[in-house]
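Exercise: predict the fold of this chain.
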Amino acid sequence: MATPTAVELQNEGLRLFQEGLYDEAAQRFSEALESFAEEGLEIESGEMLNNIGIIRRKQSRWEDALASLEEAQRIFARAGDKSREAQAIGNMGSIYATLKRQDDAIKAWSTAASIFAELDDRQNQGETLMALGMSLFKSGRRQEGLASYQAGMQTITNPTPKQKLSRLFLGIQARILG
């Protein structure tokens, strides 16, 4: 039997992840990581680390998740892939927020939002600004948080139905208070 390729391992990992088989998915992503690294494919290696970080976050294995995401972020930065770098930083922000490390979450999301803005990636920028706004609000910086959340709502390009409703309410609020 032929040894599976890195891409086959990656696809198997994605399938297992979608089925909720997180340990098995992480194992496949780790195997794909080794193969991609042996082939000198940095971006793909970083993607596998990012995937592992997301799995570890779902499993509440915070330190493992952060370690994988930090390494993915370093790889993306070295490779000059700003979009993936910002995604890894944003994922770290989510973990920091869960761990009640609001200052770290705010810093991560601010950095990610700035990178997305540079790239003119309005959807990811908006979603990141909304997460940043919630974190600022929870940390007691309510005005700043509301402003960031509103900016995010206005920036996203493909709002969900819930976000569309929030936009409507924010618009009404602005007219009443403005």
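Check your answer against the key: The mean pLDDT is 91.
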